[in-house]
């Protein structure tokens, strides 16, 4: 991985004082007259181009059409790479271009062209600020790491970097790929990545102009992940404060604008490859350089392979789904056992629940039950906080704040036994009744790990109920975390597996926390874990 190059110390990225090629309009360039060609031999190549690169290719198109040995003309059109990718992957019936120059090779992981050639332009991913700053991916990963830390940082939180939507932007996806690479060697890296997804969803910034275009952005220290060329263009247009773009100290990835061929028609393929040679020539490199691109960029770290691009994109898509979660806390007498100085089992699990709450976005829905035996007449469970979106206000507080407060008020029922089976079945059925297909629907149970309610359903009845009622088209997953030495792992595993869920066994508060964070990250494979 490349570090920060000395020549890229944080300085303003200024528009060139002269010679900037500006073409108004983002439509198509078409050149109809081709001397010396019969009408039946003429070919019109339709080329979809990332919009920011389009103005820099006008001269190349003219040079191509003036060249000898071709009876082709070029029609260039600026098109969002995500839209072309959707079309080429078969998810849309839109028109297919003959050739395509997206902003990144990443897109070819989803929409495979017939040929991928050289890079027409390049631009490294930078962290853009409205004032000089030391660029580091820690600005992006720090808040996510703090959310899963046992010691949350004190003092005011710094600005969260704004990241373009990774499902629509190669810049946003590049930020996730760098995070994935850096977190691969970090303890709880998967949990930090899960927290990062929440931060990205809540702080997306489509453009540098929108992120840095106000006085508040300067005073608040706004940071946005962008391409160096986007920062250049922001400064050239003079919309808002001047931006400073710095390559992160840990290295970065680059947008590489590959020339790809989509058509399989032989004549068009031959013409497209001749066009590629013109686009990769010195004259074109100088044209795009004047727009703020760097065809000779060497800042980018080793690019990820197709498999990694798909894996990270799919992980983001799953983790970005809001969660609908019902959490059950065992408050039976055994939960009063001391597991650390000044901390009993119930308090330890409540603290773990509070930590897990930080990984959920405001549009996730969460409710809390407690269970023991005969909490409400003959019923073993009781609702403490009804399920609702975490961002909803309940009186003067949000649902998130209400749950945080409630978890601190949980108390052990010292004469209570563990009515696990009855409570689990009731929670599973409650989540099925309110199932929401656009969310990940889960029951999470913290327990001492052994049912001892003789008046409730048996293990066989509970297992049969889960197996009969589990619907793979509307999956509700059960996660059971047992705390202590007497967890009945075999029985609990059979119950969880009936819903494609998982059983975890913790013996210390630290282990409980780690296991929960792992469970929260299981959304990557739900419901086929």
Automatic annotation (TrEMBL):
Pfam families according to UniProt: SBP_bac_11
Domain named VWFA: residues: 324-524
SUPFAM superfamilies for this protein: vWA-like
PROSITE patterns given in the database record: VWFA (PS50234)
InterPro entries (UniProt xref): VWF_A, vWFA_dom_sf
SMART domains (UniProt xref): VWA
Protein name (database record): VWA domain-containing protein
Taxonomic lineage of the native organism: Bacteria, Bacillati, Actinomycetota, Actinomycetes, Streptosporangiales
